[in-house]
Amino acid sequence: MGAIAFHPFVLPFSIGVVFMLTALISRFILWKKKLPFADNEKIRNGFFTVKTLYALKEVFRESLLHRRMHRVNPLLGYMHMTFAFGWFLLILIGNIESRLYSGSEFNLPYYPIFFQYFVHDKTGMPLEKVFTYLMDMLLLFVLSGLALALIKRTNSRLLGLKRTTNIHKGDRIALFALWLIFPFRLIAESITSGVYHQGGFLTDTFGKFIDELLPVDQLVVPAWWAYSIVLGVFFVSLPFSRYLHIPAEIVLIFLRHYGLKPSKKFDHFSQMELFSCPRCGVCIDKCQLASELNMEQIPPGHFFHSIRDHRDDKEQAFNCLLCGRCEEICPVGINTLDIRVQRRHEFQVQDNKIQFPYLVDGKAQHAEILYFAGCMTHLTPGIKSSMIRIFEATGLSYYFMDEQGGACCGRPMQMAGRFNEAKAMVEHNQNIIDRCRPVIMVTSCPICLKSFKEEYIINAQLMHHSEFINLMMEKNKINLKHSGLRVSYHDPCELGRGLKVYNEPRKVLHQLSDLQPVQLEAHFSLCCAGSLGNTVLTNPQRNELANRTLDMLLENDPDALVTACPLCKKTLAGSNRCEVIDIAELVAANLILKGEPSRVLRTPMYSH
Amino acid sequence: MINFGYTSNKDRQIVFDENDRSVYQILQSKEPSVDICIQCGTCSSTCTTGQFTQFSLRQIIVNIHRGEMDFINEDIRKCMFCGKCQLVCPRSVNTRNIIQVLITILN
Amino acid sequence: MTRESQTIAVIGGGPAGLEASAKLTGLGYNVFILEKNTEVGGHLLDWDRLFPDQQNASEVLDAIKAGLNENTQILTGAEVVEISENHRFDIKLAGSPQKITADAILVATGFDVFDARKKEEYGYGIYDHVITSAELETYFKNKKEILKRNGSPVKRIAFIHCVGSRDEKAGVRHCSRVCCVTAVKQAIEVKELYPDVEVYLFYMDLRMFGLGYEELYKEAQEIYNIRFIRGRLSESFENQDGTIMVKVEDTLAGKPMRINVDLMVLMVGILASSGTSEMGSKMGIGINSNGFLKPVNSHFSSQISNRAGVFLAGTCKSPKNIEETLSDARAAAVLIDNYLKAKIT
Question: Model ipTM?
Fold first, then answer.
């Protein structure tokens, strides 16, 4: 060969690559410099361990294959996979092919990209036919994904999305460039094959076709120029467009494997999560505010974009239910709820004064079970009295910590982003709990439970009452009879997605009722709309959402709707559309008691 | 100075025309449901903070409307944000957002 | 055609239905009263005495019934299944082959009281010593003693106003109008029976709209020592001894207030009855946003429905006292007569 293969048209591509790499690396260095010492330490400690291999495995599975995206919708997953994995293979196989041909270890980066221009006759190269076939096959693979991408833009429903993201100005150049890359490659390779007949089943056929119509020999160089220019444009625009998610997600996967976690404040980890959002639009349909109330700007896809562009995101930060449906579905696994709360914190007035001087030491008493009903449960006495009845049936000693009311657990304040205030309440309750020294701590409110799990240090088995009932059932501490009711179960967001308690309530309900399935349950359950995570929604808006949720829950026309959260109960019962009861009430009404209960509760309406 | 045996206090009337009532106007624009409060007192009845302190959302709303701003800024910081008030309000006033908006505009 | 040859079906045998029937039969028409329950009289049957003058409900009912003559046919246990129209109305009743044919229909299907279990935080159905105003009235009517569950005397009673009225969270926006004065009436009755019992009324507004109501209010304060506290109940607790802790804000004192009582009476509001909603949807009569039936014009045609030949009377349209209900029924009778006369000629 001798002379180095070169043509001026490789310049746009080469400049693009160099520019992109410079931009990305300098950005990464700047980002890493500001990383707290502890996080840097974690990265350093994890780098030469098996964690890196696991991270690589995940990068392969997620960044290339898009496994989680396949779970959302197979077609959508396929589309993302063709671009990522297809293009990756084109580069990889192209590199191998060019190296096998040249026989040298080192090739200039553009050489494999424009290989078809530089080399017309591969005779003698090992596996020549296989490579030709493979490269055409891969190109076809990517082009099929491009076709789906175009369909998604015009009719996203075909790919399982009712709504999708709009293309923002900055992204438009990158997107069009990306779309043009593969058709231009097809044209360039086909035209070249039209002259030299070197292509495979796709490019050769297409080349012959073009040859019939156009003077191919004059078009070879312009076609390669066009291909190189769109590549260059894409690479130059990548660090400034949503396609930054490609490198960012890879970095994020490594960070996660090294043990970095979102903190309370909006920090460098949050930033990397933000950049990792590909704006795929999967979260949009899952957001009830977007799908039911047309609040298009609320889902993370749009919210993150506002943060990245430094637009006012206050409304977006606060007007969110924190139901977690977006986080559950996010194919990148971004902690969308944490980022929302971090942003709220940025908007809150920072106040370091002692917050609640009126919270003085509460009464504490040692018992096997410590019961914390929670603020909301005081507005649903049916749950409270049912729990007392259940405790008495177990024969275990219990202390009702907030029987006369008490300080809030701090979770609502936490969700509003006022961390100092939340901390003051946590300290107050922590002190009482510590002095009670329980074996088991039970709460009726999943909102409180989430706070106890995340903000407190509880040296006891901490559980929701549905878990407690299940435990007591399994240990034969309580016996239940069948209620004869057909019920449907509504998963409270904080208990389900928030704390992953899905099975215990269902096990209990199977024991004492005929549990009907509903269309969206467990991970995919809908929010009742009563969420304390949102301060902005008006009552009519909440009612509208609650009614849509009920439409789904009542499809099977159950005798009663069962839930496990006082706030969900109140919200869903407010519509007057059905009997809404808490799992504890159903249990209390169907306890088989050996002796006479100490007090008979008048809740006959829940049992036959 | 002659000692008359008594001192004159600050005028304790609500001098409606002289009071600065702009906070209410801002509050109203950011959380319109403040207008539909009927002063029934359910929010302040259920409120845990109100058990221990002067804090009363009902009084905060009426005082801000009259332009009586004494202690408002201290009082709103005592709220624990638990949301019971919102659950019991018969007029469905967005109580928590009133506190949130006030904290923002008064600081 | 004469009046004697024409028939009117009155759906609902409460005060409105009975009074309208009396006036219509008085004019010479034939009337069928279709009553779902086993007896006519509606809610008057459950009531002991009426505000503001403590007249016996049974006397009022008897007086209304006295107006009915032999042209009236009362069908009890009669549930309307279907109404078809073919110049005249054909009414099919549940479990009966008999079909009623009528030239006009009067809907007088009345109200239901609010189901107090829906205000869970008030503890009705959960705590022992929480009853509704309707239940208290049956105590009076049946001369049943008002005692605690363990048989000991009641020393303190709280009446809670606006339970299922003016409450968006209970899904009821309207004011039920008559509960304020009913509470005052019942409080006085309690004091007449048990002069030593302390009685407190918890209200957010006292709406004493009728003549004699304000006087009754004053009487309650002056003669019976009944105390009125301005504050709406947020929630109640049951104490160990079964007494109820009432939690309100004393809005006039500006402080939250806790008071233990032996019995809590919930003044349940007035809602369109299930029969009213059913008739509304079956006959295509307009229903307003509060669930009551909507006349074509609430000022000058308030007894006329949007369907020709179908008239409305009484509390199926809005909460009313007995006086208003009876006047409304008479007005409906006149309008039905006008309508049928126009049809004759």
Answer: 0.91
How far apart CA C157 and CA A241 sit, in angstroms, is 70
Tokens of A138: 């891969």
Inter-CA distances, B97 with A287, A417, C283, Å: 21, 14, 44
Q: Which helix (H) or strand (E) covers residue C26, if one does?
A: helix C15-27
Architecture of domain A369-474: 3-Layer(aba) Sandwich (3.40)
Q: Does residue A173 have a pLDDT over 60?
A: yes
Chain B window 62-81: which residues touch C at a Cβ cutoff of 8 Å?
none
**DSSP calls for B55-84:** --HHHHHHHHHHT--TTHHHHHTT-----H
Kindly report the CA angle at B46 between C127 and A408, in degrees rounded to 5? 105
A406 in C contact zone (CB under 8 Å)? no
Which C residues in the span 121-140 are in contact with B, Cβ-Cβ below 8 Å?
121
Pairing relationship of beta strands C88-93 and C80-86 according to DSSP bridges: antiparallel
Q: Which of C313, C276, C309 is nearest to C292 (CA)?
A: C276
Range from A209-223, A351-365, C116-130, C267-281 carrying the lowest mean pLDDT: A351-365
CB contact (8 A) between residue C166 and residue B90: yes
What is the percentage of chain A residues whose pLDDT exceeds 70? 97
DSSP-assigned letters across all residues of chain B: ----SS-PPPP-S--TTTS--HHHHHHHHH-GGGGG-----HHHHH-HHHHHSS--HHHHHHHHHHT--TTHHHHHTT-----HHHHH-TT---HHHHHHHHHHHH-
Q: Which CATH number fits domain A486-589: 3.30.70, 3.40.1130, 3.40.50, 1.10.10?
A: 3.40.50
- Dmax over CA atoms of chain C, in Å, equals 73
Domain positions in chain A are: 10-245, 261-347, 369-474, 486-589
Omega cis (within 30) before A74: no
Phi, psi dihedrals of residue B70, rounded to the nearest 5° = -60, 135
Do A261-347 and A486-589 fold alike per CATH?
Answer: no
Residue B56 to residue C248, Cβ atoms within 8 A: no
> C339 and C309 in contact (C-beta within 8 Å)?
yes
Q: Parse chain B into domains and list their residue ranges.
A: 22-106
In this structure, CATH architecture of domain A261-347: Orthogonal Bundle (1.10)
The 3 state secondary structure assigned to A485-534 is: CEEEECCCCCCCCCCCCCHHHHHHHHHHCEEECCCCCHHHCCCCCCCCCC
Interface mutation target, options A358, A420, A429, A443, chain B, most CBs of B under 10 Å: A358
Closest by Cα among A281, A279, A278 to A291 = A281
Q: Is B44 on the interface with C (CB under 8 A)?
A: yes
User: Which residues, other chains included, contact A80 with Cβ-Cβ below 8 Å and sequence gap of 6+?
Assistant: A66, A69, A145, A280, A331
Q: How far apart are CA A492 and CA A526, in angstroms?
A: 8
How do residues A209-231 score in pLDDT, each as one tens digit?
Answer: 998 888 888 899 999 999 999 99
Residue B5: the pLDDT is 65
For residue A585, give both structure tokens.
């009430």
C1-33 residue pLDDT tens = 788 889 999 999 999 999 999 999 999 999 999
Instruction: Say if domain B22-106 classifies as CATH 3.40.50.150.
Output: no
**What's the pTM value of the predicted model, to 2 decimals?**
0.91
Residue A139, both tokens: 């190109």
Q: Which of A121-135, A352-366, B68-82 has the highest mean pLDDT?
A: B68-82
For residue C108, give the nearest of C36, C58, C216, C28 by alpha carbon. C36
